[in-house]
TrEMBL record:
PANTHER family from the UniProt entry: ARGINASE/AGMATINASE, GUANIDINO ACID HYDROLASE, MITOCHONDRIAL
Highest taxon in the source lineage: Bacteria
Family listed: Belongs to the arginase family. Agmatinase subfamily.
Broadest EC class assigned to this enzyme: hydrolase
This protein's encoding gene: speB
Co-factor: note: Binds 2 manganese ions per subunit.
Cofactor needs: Mn(2+)
UniProt organism field: Streptomyces asoensis
Name under which the protein is recorded: Agmatinase
Length: 322
């Protein structure tokens, strides 16, 4: 979209009830209806990399359904994201569920195509395996990027049953491949049992800092966001959010839940505190609706994606105004 064009926004809910019509993200137009987008919301229905409960392949569409209730104005960021930039639903990246290596290649190629149009990506998973090909694609455009990884788990293990591509290994692979800026890597919301203390030692050697869920509780969202901003600086930033960073009370519908997590309020407040960071793309993953109750998890994920989309839309509009 050029700076002179008016973005096409969501379906008007005063004319068409929110529960009617196709479920695109936030009831936005499809990408093929607008030609190109500044922010493309895409699904990746893939969960062949999970180590426990499957079902995240259905996460993207569950998030879209829950996003029907989102409205055009975001008061927390004082912005109307869908009026500031063209945001569109790019549909799903169809991948082979029986071949992880092929799926990873397909996701990377599709992300290359979308980023090549000038869009930023708001990706809806899918399991966390998908973060690796997305980061590969983003790094081709921006070079090694800063990473904020919200998750109950480290996801920097080496292999599972000899497999190098799983939802527990993407960020070790990303560091090994040189696509992350190792001066600006952070986990947020980690907690729960590990295989051993060596897990933490290995993670630190890769360059990650850790803000546990207990740290968030004790220090508060504002202080945590300030610490993260200082670590990120003005680097291009990718944010990857496993919904299990939230406590199971706030996100029961996920594959590997851990007690003692963040609240949805804490997550959203931290994200809002990162609005000045150079967010180039993001993902929300590991929503498994079969384990959800009353769309609690999908609603949390849709609001999370909404905050991330708002940040990107504001930055795009500000860049055009210069």
């Amino acid at each position: 979209m050029s700076g002179n064009e008016t973005p096409r926004g969501p379906v008007d809910s005063s004319r068409v009830p929110r529960y009617a019509g196709p479920a695109t993200f936030a009831r936005l137009p499809r990408l093929d209806e607008v030609g190109r987008a500044d922010v493309a919301v895409v699904g990746v229905p893939f969960d062949s990399g999970v180590s426990y409960r499957p079902g995240a392949r259905f996460g993207g569409n569950a998030i879209r359904e829950a996003s029907r209730l989102l409205r055009p104005y975001n008061p927390a960021q004082d912005a109307s994201p869908f009026a500031l930039a063209q945001v569109a639903d790019g549909g799903d990246i169809a991948v082979n569920p029986f071949n992880i290596h092929e799926a990873v290649e397909t996701i990377e190629a599709a992300a290359d195509d979308l980023l090549g149009t000038g869009a930023r990506l708001m990706t809806l998973g899918g399991d966390h395996t998908i973060a690796l090909p997305l980061l590969r694609s983003v790094a081709k455009k921006h070079g090694p990027v800063a990473l904020l990884h919200f998750d109950a788990h480290l996801d920097t293990w080496d292999t599972y049953f000899g497999a190098e591509y799983t939802h527990g290994t993407p960020f070790r692979r990303a560091v090994e491949e040189g696509i992350l800026d190792t001066e600006a890597l952070s986990h947020v919301g980690t907690r729960g049992p590990l295989y051993g203390k060596q897990d933490l030692t290995d993670d630190e050697k890769l360059g990650f800092g850790i803000v546990t869920s207990a740290d968030v509780y004790r220090r508060g969202a504002d202080e945590v966001a300030d610490q993260l901003r200082q670590r990120i600086g003005d680097r291009p930033l990718y944010i990857s959010i496993d919904i299990d960073c939230l406590d199971p009370a706030h996100a029961p519908g996920t594959g590997t839940p851990e007690a003692g997590g963040m609240t949805s309020r804490e997550l959203l407040e931290i994200l809002r505190g990162l609005a000045s960071c150079n967010l180039v793309s993001a993902d929300v993953v590991e929503v498994a609706p079969a384990y959800d109750h009353a769309e609690i998890t999908s609603v949390a994920a849709s609001h999370t994606a909404y905050e991330l989309t708002t940040i990107m839309s504001r930055q795009i509009a500000e860049a055009r105004a210069k």
